[in-house]
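Take just one protein record:
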Amino acid sequence: MATEQTQKSGFKSFPGNFWTVIVMEFFERGSYYGVMSVLSIYLILSPTEGGLGFSKEGVGAIKSTITPLLYLLPILAGAIADRFGYRKVLMFAFAMMSLGYFFTSLSSSYGIVFLSLIVMAIGAGFFKPIISGTIARVTDENNSSLGFGIYYWSINLGAFLFPLILVPFLKDISWSYIFIMAAVGTGSMLLLNLFVYREPPRPTNTKPLSQVFKDIALVLKDYRFVLMIVIYSGFWILYFQMFDTVLWYLKDYIDMAPVNQVVNNFLGIFVANPSWEFDAEHVTVINAGAIIVLQLFVSALVRKTPALPTMIFGILLGTIGMGILAISTYAWVFIAGLILFSIGEMTAHPKFISYIGLIAPADKKALYLGYSFLYGVIGSGVGGILGALLYVHFVDNLQRPGLLWFIFSMIGVLTIIGLLLYNKFIAVKKT
Protein backbone atom coordinates (compact mmCIF):
# COMPACT_ATOMS: atom_id res chain seq x y z
CA MET A 1 0.00 0.00 0.00
CA ALA A 2 2.80 2.39 0.88
CA THR A 3 4.34 2.00 -2.60
CA GLU A 4 0.98 2.62 -4.24
CA GLN A 5 0.40 5.72 -2.08
CA THR A 6 3.75 7.25 -2.96
CA GLN A 7 2.88 7.03 -6.66
CA LYS A 8 -0.10 9.30 -6.08
CA SER A 9 -0.09 12.85 -4.79
CA GLY A 10 -2.31 15.12 -2.77
CA PHE A 11 -5.77 13.95 -1.82
CA LYS A 12 -5.57 10.93 -4.11
CA SER A 13 -2.74 9.48 -2.04
CA PHE A 14 -5.01 8.65 0.88
CA PRO A 15 -6.72 5.25 1.18
CA GLY A 16 -10.41 4.88 1.96
CA ASN A 17 -9.74 4.22 5.63
CA PHE A 18 -8.26 7.71 5.96
CA TRP A 19 -11.45 9.37 4.76
CA THR A 20 -13.52 7.07 6.98
CA VAL A 21 -11.79 8.29 10.13
CA ILE A 22 -11.95 11.91 8.93
CA VAL A 23 -15.75 11.54 8.72
CA MET A 24 -15.75 9.97 12.20
CA GLU A 25 -13.66 12.83 13.57
CA PHE A 26 -15.93 15.45 11.97
CA PHE A 27 -19.12 14.00 13.48
CA GLU A 28 -17.59 13.25 16.87
CA ARG A 29 -16.05 16.70 17.29
CA GLY A 30 -19.13 18.38 15.87
CA SER A 31 -21.30 16.53 18.39
CA TYR A 32 -18.91 17.29 21.24
CA TYR A 33 -18.47 20.99 20.52
CA GLY A 34 -22.13 21.34 19.70
CA VAL A 35 -22.90 20.23 23.24
CA MET A 36 -20.01 22.05 24.92
CA SER A 37 -20.88 25.32 23.19
CA VAL A 38 -24.02 25.60 25.34
CA LEU A 39 -23.64 23.02 28.14
CA SER A 40 -22.65 25.51 30.85
CA ILE A 41 -25.62 27.72 29.94
CA TYR A 42 -28.13 24.86 29.81
CA LEU A 43 -27.05 23.52 33.20
CA ILE A 44 -27.55 26.83 35.04
CA LEU A 45 -30.72 28.07 33.30
CA SER A 46 -33.84 27.78 35.42
CA PRO A 47 -36.30 24.99 34.56
CA THR A 48 -38.80 27.62 33.42
CA GLU A 49 -36.25 28.67 30.77
CA GLY A 50 -35.69 25.09 29.70
CA GLY A 51 -32.54 24.47 31.75
CA LEU A 52 -31.71 22.38 34.80
CA GLY A 53 -31.10 25.09 37.40
CA PHE A 54 -27.77 23.83 38.74
CA SER A 55 -25.38 26.14 40.59
CA LYS A 56 -22.32 27.52 38.81
CA GLU A 57 -20.10 25.81 41.37
CA GLY A 58 -21.83 22.53 40.54
CA VAL A 59 -21.22 23.10 36.84
CA GLY A 60 -17.58 23.89 37.59
CA ALA A 61 -17.25 20.53 39.38
CA ILE A 62 -18.70 18.74 36.35
CA LYS A 63 -16.40 20.49 33.89
CA SER A 64 -13.35 19.98 36.11
CA THR A 65 -14.08 16.24 36.05
CA ILE A 66 -15.16 15.40 32.51
CA THR A 67 -12.65 17.51 30.55
CA PRO A 68 -9.52 16.15 32.30
CA LEU A 69 -10.75 12.65 31.43
CA LEU A 70 -10.55 13.58 27.75
CA TYR A 71 -6.84 14.30 28.20
CA LEU A 72 -5.97 11.45 30.59
CA LEU A 73 -7.73 8.46 29.06
CA PRO A 74 -5.96 8.49 25.66
CA ILE A 75 -2.79 7.33 27.45
CA LEU A 76 -4.52 4.08 28.35
CA ALA A 77 -6.75 3.87 25.28
CA GLY A 78 -3.85 3.92 22.83
CA ALA A 79 -2.16 0.96 24.50
CA ILE A 80 -5.45 -0.97 24.67
CA ALA A 81 -6.13 -0.33 20.98
CA ASP A 82 -2.68 -1.55 19.98
CA ARG A 83 -3.26 -4.79 21.87
CA PHE A 84 -6.92 -5.56 21.17
CA GLY A 85 -7.72 -3.72 17.96
CA TYR A 86 -8.85 -0.27 16.86
CA ARG A 87 -12.32 -1.33 15.75
CA LYS A 88 -13.14 -2.82 19.15
CA VAL A 89 -12.07 0.36 20.93
CA LEU A 90 -14.02 2.51 18.46
CA MET A 91 -17.10 0.37 19.07
CA PHE A 92 -16.75 0.92 22.81
CA ALA A 93 -16.04 4.66 22.38
CA PHE A 94 -18.99 5.44 20.11
CA ALA A 95 -21.38 3.38 22.25
CA MET A 96 -20.29 5.16 25.43
CA MET A 97 -20.49 8.62 23.86
CA SER A 98 -23.91 8.02 22.36
CA LEU A 99 -25.30 6.59 25.60
CA GLY A 100 -23.80 9.43 27.64
CA TYR A 101 -25.35 12.11 25.45
CA PHE A 102 -28.67 10.29 25.28
CA PHE A 103 -29.01 9.82 29.04
CA THR A 104 -28.04 13.48 29.57
CA SER A 105 -30.97 14.46 27.32
CA LEU A 106 -33.35 12.50 29.57
CA SER A 107 -31.97 13.55 32.95
CA SER A 108 -32.67 16.46 35.23
CA SER A 109 -31.03 15.45 38.52
CA TYR A 110 -27.49 16.65 39.18
CA GLY A 111 -26.07 13.22 40.00
CA ILE A 112 -27.47 11.47 36.93
CA VAL A 113 -26.42 14.29 34.58
CA PHE A 114 -22.92 14.22 36.12
CA LEU A 115 -22.70 10.44 35.69
CA SER A 116 -24.06 10.58 32.12
CA LEU A 117 -21.47 13.17 31.13
CA ILE A 118 -18.72 11.05 32.69
CA VAL A 119 -19.89 8.13 30.50
CA MET A 120 -19.68 10.45 27.48
CA ALA A 121 -16.21 11.65 28.49
CA ILE A 122 -14.93 8.09 28.88
CA GLY A 123 -16.08 7.33 25.34
CA ALA A 124 -14.52 10.52 23.98
CA GLY A 125 -11.25 9.82 25.80
CA PHE A 126 -11.02 6.35 24.26
CA PHE A 127 -11.94 7.71 20.82
CA LYS A 128 -9.31 10.45 20.82
CA PRO A 129 -6.10 8.47 20.09
CA ILE A 130 -7.66 5.99 17.64
CA ILE A 131 -8.22 8.48 14.82
CA SER A 132 -4.74 9.98 14.98
CA GLY A 133 -3.32 6.47 15.35
CA THR A 134 -5.15 5.27 12.24
CA ILE A 135 -3.97 8.28 10.24
CA ALA A 136 -0.40 7.63 11.34
CA ARG A 137 -0.67 4.02 10.13
CA VAL A 138 -2.26 4.71 6.73
CA THR A 139 0.02 7.59 5.73
CA ASP A 140 3.74 7.84 5.09
CA GLU A 141 6.40 10.54 5.04
CA ASN A 142 5.10 11.81 1.71
CA ASN A 143 1.52 12.58 2.76
CA SER A 144 1.52 12.53 6.57
CA SER A 145 1.75 16.31 6.89
CA LEU A 146 -1.21 16.87 4.56
CA GLY A 147 -3.12 14.05 6.24
CA PHE A 148 -2.82 15.53 9.71
CA GLY A 149 -3.60 18.97 8.32
CA ILE A 150 -6.90 17.61 6.98
CA TYR A 151 -7.45 15.92 10.35
CA TYR A 152 -7.10 19.21 12.27
CA TRP A 153 -9.32 21.00 9.78
CA SER A 154 -12.02 18.34 10.25
CA ILE A 155 -11.93 19.00 14.00
CA ASN A 156 -12.43 22.73 13.58
CA LEU A 157 -14.94 22.32 10.78
CA GLY A 158 -17.13 20.19 13.07
CA ALA A 159 -16.67 22.69 15.89
CA PHE A 160 -17.68 25.48 13.49
CA LEU A 161 -20.67 24.01 11.64
CA PHE A 162 -22.54 22.15 14.39
CA PRO A 163 -22.83 25.11 16.81
CA LEU A 164 -23.48 27.51 13.92
CA ILE A 165 -26.25 25.56 12.16
CA LEU A 166 -27.65 22.75 14.29
CA VAL A 167 -27.49 24.06 17.85
CA PRO A 168 -29.57 27.25 17.34
CA PHE A 169 -32.22 25.31 15.45
CA LEU A 170 -32.46 22.49 17.98
CA LYS A 171 -32.33 24.83 20.98
CA ASP A 172 -35.45 26.63 19.75
CA ILE A 173 -37.30 23.30 19.89
CA SER A 174 -35.85 21.94 23.12
CA TRP A 175 -32.43 22.03 24.78
CA SER A 176 -32.59 18.25 25.14
CA TYR A 177 -32.57 17.92 21.34
CA ILE A 178 -28.95 19.14 21.31
CA PHE A 179 -27.93 16.07 23.30
CA ILE A 180 -30.08 13.81 21.13
CA MET A 181 -28.32 15.29 18.09
CA ALA A 182 -24.95 14.42 19.67
CA ALA A 183 -26.19 10.92 20.54
CA VAL A 184 -27.24 10.37 16.92
CA GLY A 185 -24.06 11.98 15.57
CA THR A 186 -21.81 9.63 17.55
CA GLY A 187 -24.11 6.60 17.55
CA SER A 188 -24.42 6.61 13.76
CA MET A 189 -20.65 6.22 13.56
CA LEU A 190 -21.11 2.69 14.93
CA LEU A 191 -22.47 1.76 11.49
CA LEU A 192 -19.47 3.33 9.78
CA ASN A 193 -17.20 1.41 12.11
CA LEU A 194 -19.02 -1.87 11.48
CA PHE A 195 -19.33 -1.74 7.71
CA VAL A 196 -16.69 0.67 6.35
CA TYR A 197 -13.75 1.05 8.76
CA ARG A 198 -10.89 -1.39 8.28
CA GLU A 199 -8.49 -2.43 11.02
CA PRO A 200 -5.12 -0.81 10.25
CA PRO A 201 -1.90 -2.81 10.62
CA ARG A 202 -0.82 -2.83 14.26
CA PRO A 203 2.73 -3.02 15.60
CA THR A 204 4.00 -6.56 16.14
CA ASN A 205 5.39 -5.65 19.55
CA THR A 206 2.57 -3.93 21.41
CA LYS A 207 3.15 -2.06 24.62
CA PRO A 208 1.86 -3.92 27.71
CA LEU A 209 -0.49 -1.89 29.88
CA SER A 210 2.03 -2.03 32.71
CA GLN A 211 4.48 -0.14 30.48
CA VAL A 212 2.01 2.75 30.27
CA PHE A 213 2.31 3.31 34.00
CA LYS A 214 6.10 2.87 33.88
CA ASP A 215 6.23 5.56 31.19
CA ILE A 216 4.10 7.88 33.32
CA ALA A 217 6.48 7.39 36.27
CA LEU A 218 9.49 7.99 34.00
CA VAL A 219 8.09 11.23 32.62
CA LEU A 220 6.95 12.53 35.99
CA LYS A 221 10.47 12.04 37.38
CA ASP A 222 11.73 14.69 34.97
CA TYR A 223 11.06 17.87 36.93
CA ARG A 224 11.99 20.07 33.97
CA PHE A 225 9.29 18.52 31.82
CA VAL A 226 6.70 18.56 34.60
CA LEU A 227 7.45 22.19 35.42
CA MET A 228 7.04 23.18 31.77
CA ILE A 229 3.66 21.44 31.63
CA VAL A 230 2.52 23.11 34.87
CA ILE A 231 3.55 26.58 33.67
CA TYR A 232 2.01 26.20 30.22
CA SER A 233 -1.24 24.90 31.70
CA GLY A 234 -1.79 28.43 33.05
CA PHE A 235 -2.69 29.52 29.52
CA TRP A 236 -5.17 26.67 29.23
CA ILE A 237 -6.91 27.77 32.39
CA LEU A 238 -7.78 30.83 30.30
CA TYR A 239 -8.75 28.76 27.27
CA PHE A 240 -11.31 26.67 29.13
CA GLN A 241 -13.09 29.82 30.29
CA MET A 242 -14.42 30.02 26.72
CA PHE A 243 -16.81 27.19 27.59
CA ASP A 244 -17.91 28.49 31.02
CA THR A 245 -17.37 31.98 32.42
CA VAL A 246 -17.23 33.70 29.02
CA LEU A 247 -20.62 32.20 28.15
CA TRP A 248 -22.15 33.29 31.46
CA TYR A 249 -20.69 36.78 31.00
CA LEU A 250 -22.15 36.98 27.50
CA LYS A 251 -25.63 36.11 28.78
CA ASP A 252 -25.43 38.41 31.81
CA TYR A 253 -23.73 41.52 30.43
CA ILE A 254 -23.30 41.72 26.66
CA ASP A 255 -25.91 43.25 24.36
CA MET A 256 -25.11 41.74 20.97
CA ALA A 257 -27.59 43.97 19.07
CA PRO A 258 -24.84 45.80 17.09
CA VAL A 259 -23.46 42.47 15.83
CA ASN A 260 -26.92 41.13 15.11
CA GLN A 261 -27.74 44.21 13.05
CA VAL A 262 -24.64 43.90 10.87
CA VAL A 263 -25.16 40.16 10.30
CA ASN A 264 -28.87 40.58 9.54
CA ASN A 265 -28.15 43.44 7.13
CA PHE A 266 -25.83 41.08 5.27
CA LEU A 267 -28.28 38.18 5.35
CA GLY A 268 -30.99 40.53 4.11
CA ILE A 269 -29.25 40.50 0.73
CA PHE A 270 -30.22 36.84 0.37
CA VAL A 271 -33.39 36.37 2.48
CA ALA A 272 -36.28 38.54 3.58
CA ASN A 273 -36.49 39.72 7.20
CA PRO A 274 -33.64 37.68 8.72
CA SER A 275 -33.67 37.37 12.52
CA TRP A 276 -30.24 35.92 13.32
CA GLU A 277 -29.03 36.43 16.90
CA PHE A 278 -25.59 35.97 18.41
CA ASP A 279 -25.81 33.56 21.35
CA ALA A 280 -23.59 31.39 23.55
CA GLU A 281 -22.89 28.76 20.89
CA HIS A 282 -21.34 31.37 18.62
CA VAL A 283 -18.38 31.81 20.96
CA THR A 284 -17.21 28.36 19.85
CA VAL A 285 -18.04 29.29 16.24
CA ILE A 286 -15.75 32.33 16.42
CA ASN A 287 -12.88 30.32 17.91
CA ALA A 288 -13.13 27.49 15.37
CA GLY A 289 -13.83 29.86 12.47
CA ALA A 290 -10.78 31.98 13.27
CA ILE A 291 -8.60 28.87 13.26
CA ILE A 292 -10.05 27.65 9.96
CA VAL A 293 -9.42 31.02 8.30
CA LEU A 294 -6.15 32.07 9.90
CA GLN A 295 -4.20 28.99 11.04
CA LEU A 296 -2.32 28.43 7.79
CA PHE A 297 -1.45 32.13 7.58
CA VAL A 298 -0.28 32.31 11.21
CA SER A 299 1.70 29.08 10.88
CA ALA A 300 3.45 30.46 7.79
CA LEU A 301 4.34 33.69 9.62
CA VAL A 302 5.94 31.90 12.59
CA ARG A 303 7.35 28.93 10.68
CA LYS A 304 10.98 29.95 11.25
CA THR A 305 10.67 31.86 14.53
CA PRO A 306 12.13 30.38 17.76
CA ALA A 307 9.67 28.23 19.70
CA LEU A 308 9.73 29.81 23.16
CA PRO A 309 9.53 33.50 22.14
CA THR A 310 6.69 32.62 19.76
CA MET A 311 4.89 30.74 22.53
CA ILE A 312 5.23 33.72 24.80
CA PHE A 313 4.00 36.10 22.11
CA GLY A 314 0.96 33.87 21.47
CA ILE A 315 0.15 33.68 25.17
CA LEU A 316 0.53 37.47 25.36
CA LEU A 317 -2.02 37.88 22.55
CA GLY A 318 -4.41 35.49 24.31
CA THR A 319 -3.93 37.33 27.61
CA ILE A 320 -4.67 40.68 25.97
CA GLY A 321 -7.72 39.12 24.32
CA MET A 322 -9.08 38.09 27.69
CA GLY A 323 -8.10 41.40 29.27
CA ILE A 324 -10.09 43.25 26.58
CA LEU A 325 -13.24 41.78 28.13
CA ALA A 326 -12.57 43.90 31.22
CA ILE A 327 -12.51 47.13 29.21
CA SER A 328 -16.06 47.29 27.91
CA THR A 329 -19.30 45.34 27.54
CA TYR A 330 -19.72 46.65 23.98
CA ALA A 331 -20.49 43.80 21.58
CA TRP A 332 -17.66 44.44 19.11
CA VAL A 333 -15.14 44.70 21.94
CA PHE A 334 -16.30 41.27 23.10
CA ILE A 335 -15.89 39.86 19.57
CA ALA A 336 -12.43 41.42 19.25
CA GLY A 337 -11.35 39.81 22.51
CA LEU A 338 -12.48 36.37 21.32
CA ILE A 339 -10.70 36.70 17.98
CA LEU A 340 -7.47 37.97 19.53
CA PHE A 341 -7.51 35.11 22.03
CA SER A 342 -7.99 32.61 19.18
CA ILE A 343 -5.02 34.09 17.29
CA GLY A 344 -2.96 33.76 20.47
CA GLU A 345 -3.99 30.11 20.80
CA MET A 346 -3.09 29.19 17.22
CA THR A 347 0.24 31.00 17.59
CA ALA A 348 1.30 29.49 20.91
CA HIS A 349 0.15 25.89 20.81
CA PRO A 350 1.99 24.54 17.73
CA LYS A 351 5.17 26.11 19.07
CA PHE A 352 4.59 24.47 22.46
CA ILE A 353 4.62 21.09 20.74
CA SER A 354 7.79 22.10 18.94
CA TYR A 355 9.42 23.27 22.19
CA ILE A 356 8.66 19.98 23.95
CA GLY A 357 10.49 18.25 21.11
CA LEU A 358 13.48 20.53 21.71
CA ILE A 359 13.73 20.08 25.48
CA ALA A 360 13.02 16.34 25.55
CA PRO A 361 15.97 13.92 25.81
CA ALA A 362 17.04 12.79 22.34
CA ASP A 363 16.02 9.17 22.93
CA LYS A 364 12.65 10.02 24.51
CA LYS A 365 11.15 12.66 22.21
CA ALA A 366 8.17 10.54 21.17
CA LEU A 367 7.43 9.62 24.78
CA TYR A 368 7.56 13.24 25.95
CA LEU A 369 5.40 14.47 23.08
CA GLY A 370 2.88 11.76 23.92
CA TYR A 371 2.53 13.05 27.48
CA SER A 372 2.76 16.75 26.66
CA PHE A 373 -1.05 17.03 26.59
CA LEU A 374 -1.08 16.79 30.38
CA TYR A 375 -1.36 20.59 30.18
CA GLY A 376 -5.04 19.97 29.35
CA VAL A 377 -5.55 17.86 32.47
CA ILE A 378 -4.29 20.66 34.69
CA GLY A 379 -5.77 23.54 32.71
CA SER A 380 -9.28 22.09 32.55
CA GLY A 381 -9.16 20.57 36.04
CA VAL A 382 -8.26 23.92 37.60
CA GLY A 383 -10.04 26.13 35.09
CA GLY A 384 -13.53 24.69 35.52
CA ILE A 385 -13.91 25.00 39.27
CA LEU A 386 -11.73 28.14 39.59
CA GLY A 387 -13.73 29.96 36.93
CA ALA A 388 -17.03 29.07 38.58
CA LEU A 389 -15.88 30.17 42.05
CA LEU A 390 -14.43 33.45 40.78
CA TYR A 391 -17.50 34.20 38.69
CA VAL A 392 -19.87 33.68 41.61
CA HIS A 393 -17.74 35.87 43.87
CA PHE A 394 -16.78 38.76 41.59
CA VAL A 395 -19.68 38.84 39.15
CA ASP A 396 -22.76 37.40 40.86
CA ASN A 397 -22.00 38.73 44.34
CA LEU A 398 -19.86 41.85 43.84
CA GLN A 399 -21.16 42.79 40.36
CA ARG A 400 -17.59 43.54 39.23
CA PRO A 401 -16.90 41.42 36.14
CA GLY A 402 -13.88 43.52 35.24
CA LEU A 403 -12.04 42.08 38.23
CA LEU A 404 -12.74 38.56 36.98
CA TRP A 405 -11.08 39.21 33.63
CA PHE A 406 -8.24 41.08 35.31
CA ILE A 407 -7.50 38.03 37.48
CA PHE A 408 -7.51 35.71 34.48
CA SER A 409 -5.26 38.14 32.61
CA MET A 410 -2.85 38.03 35.54
CA ILE A 411 -2.78 34.24 35.23
CA GLY A 412 -1.69 34.78 31.63
CA VAL A 413 0.99 37.25 32.74
CA LEU A 414 2.25 34.79 35.37
CA THR A 415 2.41 32.11 32.68
CA ILE A 416 4.59 34.36 30.52
CA ILE A 417 6.86 35.22 33.47
CA GLY A 418 7.07 31.54 34.37
CA LEU A 419 8.15 30.61 30.84
CA LEU A 420 10.82 33.32 30.80
CA LEU A 421 12.22 32.18 34.16
CA TYR A 422 12.02 28.57 33.06
CA ASN A 423 14.05 29.26 29.95
CA LYS A 424 16.65 31.21 31.91
CA PHE A 425 17.15 28.96 34.92
CA ILE A 426 15.62 25.51 34.31
CA ALA A 427 15.73 24.51 30.65
CA VAL A 428 18.71 22.50 29.45
CA LYS A 429 20.72 24.68 27.10
CA LYS A 430 21.48 23.12 23.73
CA THR A 431 25.12 23.33 22.74
